[in-house]
Write a structure and sequence with these properties.
Elements: E1 4-8, H1 11-20, E2 22-27, H2 33-44, E3 48-56, E4 60-65, E5 68-73, E6 77-84
Antiparallel strand pairs: 1-2, 2-6, 3-6, 4-5
Length: 96
């Protein structure tokens, strides 16, 4: 089971990374906080102080087309906000 799916790179998370040492990740919905902490520590070689998680519910979407109204929903996802120790950082762009 892959724990970390992808990092979240937005203006809000980037600002928190600079001021509060917080980074965001999209994670597997079945992963708990301990598994997320171990995955981040092993992948990025940093010490994690805290892990906060939240689950985004899917949104109902509909659009009007020539064939009629098409309705559906977006998928659910789980996010993790990781706070790392002071003085450490994660560089998402080192692998590019």
């Amino acid at each position: 089971m892959e724990i970390l799916i992808k990092p979240i790179v937005t203006e809000k998370i980037t600002a928190q990374a600079e001021s509060l040492n917080r980074y965001g990740f999209i994670v597997n919905r079945n992963a708990n906080k301990l598994q997320i902490k171990k995955a981040v520590e092993s992948l990025y070689n940093v010490s994690v102080e805290s892990v906060n998680t939240l689950i985004n519910g899917g949104k109902r979407k509909s659009r009007f087309t020539k064939a009629g109204v098409i309705s559906g929903s977006t998928g659910m996802s789980k996010k993790a906000i990781i706070t790392i120790a002071k003085g450490e950082s994660i560089d998402f762009y080192s692998n590019i």
